[in-house]
Amino acid sequence: MEVKAIKGHHHVSAITANARKNLDFYTSVLGMRLIKKTVNQDDPSVYHLFYADERGNPGTDFTFFEIPPAARTHYGTNSISMTSFRVKDDQALAYWEDRFRQLGVEHESISVRTGRASMSFRDPEGQRLMLVSDEKNTGVPGGIPWEKASVPARFGITGLGPVQLTVSRSERTARVLTEILGFRETRSFASPVDGQKDIRVFETGEGGTGSEIFLEERKDLPGERPGRGSVHHLALRVEDEMELRKWIDRINKSGYANSGFVDRYYFRSLYFRDPNGILFELATDGPGFDQDEELESLGESLALPPHLEPRRIEIEQSLKPLS
What we know:
Layout: E1 9-16, H1 19-29, E2 33-40, E3 43-52, E4 61-66, E5 79-87, H2 90-103, E6 111-113, E7 116-122, E8 128-133, E9 159-167, H3 170-180, E10 184-189, E11 199-203, E12 213-217, E13 231-238, H4 241-254, E14 262-263, E15 267-273, E16 279-287, H5 312-318
Parallel strand pairs: 1-4, 5-8, 9-12, 13-16
Antiparallel strand pairs: 1-13, 2-3, 3-4, 5-9, 6-7, 7-8, 10-11, 11-12, 14-15, 15-16
């Protein structure tokens, strides 16, 4: 059964040990909008927070599962080792460099990475992040920054950029990206670590920053021990449920163990791991985050999918207020 090309990144989900501090950083410092305050559907005793553009468009979501006892991450291979955010142009990147300096955010200087101005930084829990200028970018369109954010819309984050995978055996993941998921390898660039192989670039759909995966092979690192500040999974965009069903059939025929169809209410999903242990999700563009809240009030109240609504009182009692 023929499948359509994956459209690009859908969302990235990471781990925090402190939802309140996490909320402060991603909204007050980064100016992203909290578009959904809900719970981990597999463990509704803890928060699942979604940050995105003005309406939570696919390709703009960075989400966090709260795991209060999570220890610090011991960085290493077989991990999603960097998530980047897109900004409009080089001028916006200069704004962020000055903002980070004023607010004491850990960051590096602006540099050029695979032809684009970029700046690495970290959140308070050590989450490995990067801002990427779209000044010379073409391809998957970005989102629209929320006009009520703490950052002027002119400089706001417009969505997810390249996501980096650091693995011990790159060919294993490269085969999954190209032979199973339909990505194409387009170029490579020098590793910032002496003696390591070049980092390979894969893209899908319309290409550009909203679709790119950087694949890094490292033989000098142990496997990562995830905790607070690590990434749980990378989700990729498929058009709708009909298309997702085709992808489920394709993944089944490939022989990879997978979750099968999962209804996350705001989108439909499939999960599977590649041979290096990277957890991928395929997620539909809809129905979207506004089916249980008005656009103007997204993220203001605790939202629960219908199957958890009967447990609302119990769930609310188990959660610490975020404000």
